Amino acid sequence: MSFDPERYTHPSDRAALKALQAIPGFSLLIKGFMNIWNERQGKILNMSTRIKLGENQMRKYYDMLPPICEKLGIPVPDLYLEMNVNPNAYTYGDTAPFIVLTSGLLDTIPDELVPTVLAHECGHIACKHSLYLTMGRTVLSGASNVLGSVLKLGGLLTVPLQVAFYYWMRCSEFSADRAAVLCDGTARKSQEVCMRLAGWKKENLAEGSIDAFLQQAADYREMITGSAWNRTLEFMVLSQASHPLLAVRAAECGEWERSEQYSRIINNIPDDNTDIPETQQTQPEEDPARTVEQKITEAFDGLFGFLKKDQQEGTNDTTQDTETQSPEETQKAEEIANELRWYRKMVEEGLITKEQYDRKERELMGK
Fold first, then answer.
1. pLDDT in tens, 317-343
2. Confidence at residue 325, expressed as pLDDT on a 0 to 100 scale
3. Strand ranges in the chain using DSSP code E only, listed in sequence order
4. C-beta of residue 53 within 8 angstroms of C-beta of residue 208
5. Is the pLDDT reported for residue 48 higher than 90?
6. What is the Cα 359 distance to its own chain's centre?
7. Which of 65, 170, 59 is nearest to 116 (CA)?
8. Global pTM value
9. CA 262, 266, 268, 269 torsion: positive or negative?
10. HEC states along 147-187?
11. Domain locations in the chain as residue ranges
């Protein structure tokens, strides 16, 4: 019996996908994408430039794939090896998705972790992520300029749509990680993969500690949750990232293995939503506007509110001559000036409006 993706799909994945689909212009964008994209294009590229693994080609790696597909209830996809020093694996396609491993990945992780990576990619296929991942990587890369030019959809490739795509892509990784943990029967291997990709290559003779890596994740979360400014910086760092931070993913894998829902799936116990902890139940669907446009605004509003409160505890006159200010007042004035430089950059990148900037500047300056 295979694992049902409906039972392990991450709640954030569901909410983020719903939000993405509701963004104005998304339906036209995907229609235009499907008009010019053909799955056979990937097949042509794979067959002509990559190594197709199979029973007669690097069978050691290919034989890892069928047992995983059986566990996840999907057909065995084509598997390719790509010459690329960057350690990576990815899934493309739609009706016949395929998986690509890079040579850099095999140089980075030991062979016993390759099935974990394959299970992660197969998790994407089982959760039906492949088409949107293919589209997301295309429209968010340099190819988006070509797409916008050919289809005259440049105006639809807005900042909210891009942020929503990145947001969903990150959330989809959590679902794929859950699939890998289920296939392995432990979170430890997925956690080690995350640590390997973070820098602990297999030829590194220094002893590595997964537990220390997980403590690093715990320290990171404490740092982020304890500061409004740090939360906003995190949002800015991730706003155009396709994957969650590796330490966070490692921690999420451990939490999934310890969850009641994971235990139910592993032990083949049917779901009873009344018994599943709230954190493991499907969360209410997020308002798409809050998820994207308002989420951006709320993040900065929260930051500005934090800075305003902090500033009001000191002096209200940040424009006085620095020679007459105390060292603390001078430092605070410099901090506010630095923050305003960030916000001017955000206006330039379309993350906030000029009106929002002006309003927040007046608040910061106590005017």
1. 434 444 455 666 666 676 677 667 767
2. 56
3. 51-52, 78-82, 89-92, 98-102
4. no
5. yes
6. 32
7. 65
8. 0.75
9. negative
10. HHHHHCCHHHCCHHHHHHHHHHHHHHHHHHHHHHHHHHCCC
11. 5-285, 296-365
